[in-house]
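We include this case.
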Amino acid sequence: MQQDLTQGSITGRLLGMAGFIGIGLMFQTAYFLVDLYFVASQGPAAIAGVGLSGNVFFLAMAASQMVGVGALSLIARAIGARTFGDAERTYGQAMLLSLMMAAISLIGGYALARPALGLLAADQATVDAGVVYLHGFLPAIAVMFPTGVMGSALRAAGVVRAPMLVQMGTVILNVILAPVLLAGWGTGLPLGVFGAGLASSISAVAGLLATLWMFSRVQTVIKAPVAFIRIDLPVWRRIVGIGLPSAGEFLLMFITAGVVYSVIRHFGSEAQAGYGVGSRVMQAVFLPAMAVAFAVAPVAGQNFGAGRADRVRRTVRDAAVISSGLMLVLTLLCQIWPQILIRPFAPDEQVVDIASTFLRIISLNFIATGLIFTASGAFQALGDTRPALIGSASRLITFAGPAIWMSTQPWTRLEHIWIASAVSVAIHCLITLVFLTREMRLKLAGLAPVTGEVSA
C-alpha cells in the first residue's frame, strides 16, 4: 500500500522499496533473457538478431522515460507537499502522453524495423532474425508506455510490492509461452524467433490488464488508472521538461549500443552475438544497484516536496553506499566466474568467450555505474535531470569517437572496444558526481518543512 516516505528510517525505506523494485526489475529483464535462452538453439545469427532488436527497447525506453520520469518526480513531490490534486492532474496528463507514444511506437516500429537493423547487422541472416523477432515483440514495447506511467505513479506513492507481483506473473507466463510458441511444444506449430517475441507481447498485455485492475486498490491518491480528460499543455510541458533529459539518456544508450554493433560488425555475427548476450547479462547484473537508484527518486522526491533537506541528503548518501557495496560484490563475480553467467544463453563456445571477456573488462566500471544510477535518481527527485543527460552525452566524445576510429585500424581487437567503454564510464561518473554536488547545494538551500499529514 502507499507510504509516507517522509517518516521513518531512510536506509529502511530504501532497502524496503529496493527489494521489491529489484525483484520487479529482475522479472522485467527476464523477458530478454528468456527469449535469448530459447532462441540460443537457433544459432549465432538468431542470437545476434534478437540482441540487436533488443536495442530498440532502449529507444522505446527513451520515449517512456520522458513521460514516466517526469510523472514520478512531479507526483512524488506533490504527495510530499500534500497537494494531491496536482498529483492526480499530472498522472492523467502523463497517461494521455503515454497512449500517444504507444501508438507512435507501433506504427514506427513496423515501418522502420528492417531498414534500421540493416544498417547495423553483420549479415542478412541477422537482419532477418531481428526483424521477425521485432514483429512479434513490438506490441510489448507499446504496452510498456501506459504500464510504465502507472508504475511511476505507484512508485511515487511508495507502492512497490503489487507491481513486483504483476511483473513476476508476466514473466512466468512468458516462460510458459516461449517454448510453446517458439519451438511448438504441445502444438506442433513452431514459430521460431517470432514466437519468442509474441510470447513477450502476450505476457506484457496480461501485465497491463493486471496493473489496471489493481491500480486503485493499492493507493488512494489517484482515483482511476484511465480517465477521459482534456489535454493540458502546461502540465505536458512540466512532465516533458523533467523527463526529456532522462529520455535523452536512454537515447544515448541506444546510440552507444548502435555504435558498438556497427564497429564490431566486421568481426562477424559471433562478435555481435557475444556482445548481445554479454550486454543483456550485464543489465541483469546491474539490477540490484538499479533497484536502489529507483528507490532514491520517490524517497528523496517526497522528502524534497516536504521540505526535508536533511532526509534528501541522507537518502542520496545511503543509496550511494549501498549501491557501491552491491556493485563491488558483482564486480568480483564477473571477474571470477563470467562463464557461469553467460553459458545458459550462448551454447556456442566462441560466443561464450567473447561475452565473458566483455563482462570481465566492463565490470571494472560497475561501482562507477552504481554511482551514476544513484545520482540519476537524485536528479529525478530534485526535478532537474539535465545534469544526468550531460554526463551521458560525454560518452559520445569519450567512447563513440575513439571506438569509430579504432574500427578503422588494423590492430584493433574487440578488447580495445570494451576497454574504451570502461574508461568512458569512469569519466561519465566523475562528471555526474560534480553535477550532483552542485545540484544538492543549490536545490536544498533554504528548504522549509511542510506541515500536515498524508491522507489515506
In short: Residues 10-444 form one domain. The mean pLDDT is 84.
